[in-house]
Amino acid sequence: MPSTTTVIIGAGHCGLAMSHCLAARSIDHVVLERAEVANSWRTQRWDSLRLLTPNWMTRLPGYRYRGADPDGYLSAREVTAMLEGYADASAAPVLTGTTVTSVRAAGGGYIVRTDRGIWRAPTVVLACGAATIPAVPALARLVPAGITSVTPVGYRNPGELPPGGVLVVGASASGIQLADELHRSGRPVTLAVGEHVRMPRTYRGRDILWWLDAAGVLDQRYDEADDLVRARNVPSMQLVGSPGRTVDLNALSSAGVRLAGRLAGIAGGVAQFSGSLPNVCALADLKLGRLLNTIDAWAGTAGERFAPTAVGSPPLGLDLRSGEIAAIVWATGYRPDLSWLDVPVLDRRGRVAHDGGVTACPGLYLIGMPFLRRRKSSLIDGAADDAAELTTHLAGHLDALAGRRERSAS
User: Fold this and answer.
1) What structural domains does the chain harbor?
2) CA 309 to CA 273: how far, in whole Å?
């Protein structure tokens, strides 16, 4: 049974960032990856997808973007190539094609079983990502036969869907991008809108993320948040990776996308929408105003404001048997796959309970979750700081283990 000091599970940007930080401290480790480096970027992204963060924000430990288009947005293929190059440049000890089948505590450390052998280590880092499995609501099973259902993981381009109208469920980053793309392909689109985070692509002549970065909004720490549970469950920002192009609900409805409230149920083949859309949009507008006030306070002057979201008279029902809708895109979020984790750290929702990535089981760490240690934790740009702090904690844990062994030996 091979042993190492740390087993990292997952070779995405977070796993590679942890590897870089551990190597800088000469901590022996291995990175186990079920497929290839950056696997989700290779296999689970639609053709036109681009990062929501500008290229200058593509920063990892020991790496930052130095290309010719700092204000552009990397495509999925470019992200894959970037992470491959990062893994090679940092000589990360990645074992690809190695699927973890169980992790359990044993002898003051952990035993990690894979389909290619068993590893023993005093520390384990879960870097397998928050967006592993599409979180499709149970009501999806009530969709009438003959309507195609897909998630963003399986969607590639409009041409793969049958001709006809599309219902997009969910109006966060994925939902608005796909609604926009499908509408521009010539299809009638209905967008079911729930809670969302309205965000302009540019503000006061700069990318909105420049302001969030410069004003320190993205650096807010998890132990500074008024309501951490709430902060960790905020939907993704309504952004598209296109310079200067804002795609919010106003832009979509002006283009011809029909807005509806949250999909609340399906009865007798009829989709039922919540009547709370005006209130939901008013709340999103209010939160956007507060954010812009924060930016203005940092900048020292007042900036522009945006028109309130116009919802018109949204429908409360849509007969899915009428033939109007040929496909449904479930842009309803994701959840992690931790079915192989045999350590008592999961909450009632099946998610790892943690304090800034540190679990209650000594030596077991988590990285890559929303607002793990900072508001930017879910972005590529957030991995460096999170990995550095978790590595410091992990090194301290190893020192404590060594101290106990020395005392026992004497």
Assistant:
1) 6-132+336-409 (3.50.50.60), 134-330 (no CATH)
2) 18
Query: How far, in Å, CA of 311 to CA of 234, rounded?
Result: 22
Beta bridge pairs of residue 133: 335
pLDDT above 80 for 121: yes
- Tens digits of per-residue pLDDT, 240-277? 999 999 999 999 999 999 999 999 999 999 999 999 99
Distance CA 58, CA 45 (A): 18
Q: Cα separation of 334 and 98, whole Å? A: 23
Closest listed residue to residue 251, CA positions, set 328, 307, 333:
307
Rounded Cα–Cα distance for residues 364 and 125 (Å): 6
In whole numbers, what is the pLDDT of the chain averaged over residues? Answer: 96
- pLDDT tens for each residue of 39-90: 999 998 999 999 999 999 999 999 999 999 999 999 999 999 999 999 999 9
**Which residue do the tokens 């939901």 mark?**
280
174 CA to centre of own chain: 10
Q: What is the DSSP code (8-state) at residue 223?
A: G
Are the C-beta atoms of 50 and 206 separated by less than 8 Å? no
73, 240 contact by CB (below 8 A): no
C-alpha–C-alpha distance, residues 11 and 5, integer Å: 17
Predicted pLDDT of residue 94? 98
Report the distance separating Cα 122 and Cα 410, nearest Å: 21
